[in-house]
Design goal:
Layout: H1 3-14, E1 27-31, H2 38-50, E2 55-60, E3 77-80, E4 91-94, H3 102-111, E5 118-120, H4 123-130, H5 132-139, E6 145-147, H6 151-157, H7 162-167, H8 169-180, E7 183-186, E8 192-194, E9 200-203, H9 215-228, H10 233-255, H11 263-275, E10 285-286
Parallel strand pairs: 1-2, 1-4, 2-3, 4-5, 5-6, 6-7
Antiparallel strand pairs: 7-8, 8-9, 9-10
Length: 287
C-alpha cells in the first residue's frame, strides 16, 4: 500500500464522528511511572492524548510520592494500578518508567493475560528478558502484542548484545517476532517493523534528533493511542513509526538543526501531522 493510501486509511479510522464521545476513541492505560521515573510515563501519556485517544490512564505501582495529577495535562488520569479492574481498558502500554522490581514483575504477569492488545516497551521488555516464564506467557497470548525494543533491549531479549543486534537487525527483528508472537518495532536508524507472519518493513523517516531521552516513550504512546482508536496493531506500528520520524524531520527543518530537540517537542508536531490532510510528500517505507 502506498504511503498516501496508508495515511488516508489511518486518518479515516481515527476521525471524529459528529456524534461520538470519549469512549468511542478508546482508553489507553499505561503501566509505569514508578517513583523517580514518572517522566517516561508522562511523555507516553501526553503523546497518547495528543494523538487522539479518548481517555488516558497512568496506572502506577505506588502513589506514595504524591504524583496523582499531571499539572500541565490534567486530562490524564493517574491511578494505583490495583484499581484498574473497574475501568474499561481498550489497550495497555506497559513499561515506561516501570522499573524491574518484584512488584513490577508480579503486576506484569497478571496483566499479560488480559484480552486487550498490549504494547511492551522499556522495563516491561527488560522483565520479559529476565523471566523465561513471562516470555512464554507473552508468546502464548491470543490478543495482539507489539514490542518496541531499542538494540540493547533486543539484545537482552535474545541473550545477545546490542552490537550483535546492530550487525544483524533484520534477523533480530524477525526472530523476536517469532519468539514472542509479537509485532516487533526494532528502533534505530531505519527502524524495522516485523510481523509474526514474516513480513518486514523498513521505516525511512526520522533523523538523529531522535537520539535523546524520552523519544521512545513518545513513540510507544503514539502506537498505543492508534491501537486504542481502532487501528490494527500493524497499522499502528507502521504509521506511528513513520509519523514519529516525520515529526523529528519537520522540527529539524523549522529549527535549523537537530541539536537540542526534545521528546516533548515531538508531541504537538505529531498532533499537527495527524490533523493535516494526506498525502505527505516523502516516501515513508521500503519493503
Amino acid at each position: 500500500m502506498s504511503r498516501s493510501a496508508e495515511n488516508n486509511r489511518v486518518v479515516s479510522l481515527i476521525q471524529r464522528d459528529p456524534e461520538s464521545n470519549k469512549a468511542a476513541h478508546g482508553t489507553l492505560a499505561i503501566l509505569g511511572g514508578s517513583p523517580g521515573m514518572v517522566g517516561a510515563a508522562v511523555l507516553s501519556a501526553r503523546c497518547a492524548l495528543y494523538s487522539g485517544a479518548g481517555r488516558i490512564v497512568v496506572a502506577r505501582l505506588s502513589l506514595a510520592d504524591g504524583f496523582v495529577v499531571d499539572a500541565l495535562q490534567p486530562e490524564i488520569m493517574v491511578i494505583d494500578v490495583r484499581s484498574h479492574a473497574s475501568r474499561p481498558i481498550t489497550t495497555w502500554l506497559m513499561g515506561p518508567g516501570l522499573g524491574t522490581s518484584d512488584e513490577a514483575l508480579e503486576i506484569l504477569q497478571g496483566l499479560m493475560s488480559c484480552n486487550s492488545p498490549i504494547v511492551l516497551d522499556a522495563d516491561a521488555l527488560n522483565l520479559v528478558a529476565q523471566d523465561p516464564a513471562l516470555a512464554r506467557q507473552c508468546a502464548r497470548r491470543r490478543a495482539p502484542t507489539v514490542i518496541t525494543p531499542h538494540p540493547g533491549e533486543a539484545g537482552r531479549l535474545l541473550n545477545s548484545s546490542a552490537q550483535h543486534v546492530q550487525a544483524n537487525r533484520v534477523s533480530t527483528a524477525m526472530q523476536l517476532s517469532q519468539q514472542l508472537n509479537a509485532i516487533t518495532v526494532l528502533k534505530g536508524h531505519h527502524t524495522l517493523i516485523a510481523s509474526t507472519d514474516g513480513m518486514l518493513h523498513e521505516n525511512v523517516t526520522g533523523n538523529a534528533a531522535l537520539a535523546s531521552g524520552g523519544t521512545g516513550d513518545v513513540l510507544a504512546g503514539l502506537i498505543g493511542a492508534l491501537i486504542a482508536q481502532g487501528c490494527s496493531p500493524m497499522q499502528a506500528a507502521l504509521t506511528g513509526t513513520r509519523l514519529h520520524g516525520e515529526a523529528a524531520e519537520h522540527l529539524t527543518t523549522r529549527l535549523g538543526g537537530m541539536i537540542g530537540i526534545t521528546a516533548g517537542e515531538l508531541i504537538p508536531e505529531i498532533r499537527r501531522l495527524l490533523n493535516q490532510a494526506p498525502p505527505i510528500s516523502q516516501p515513508g517505507f521500503e519493503h
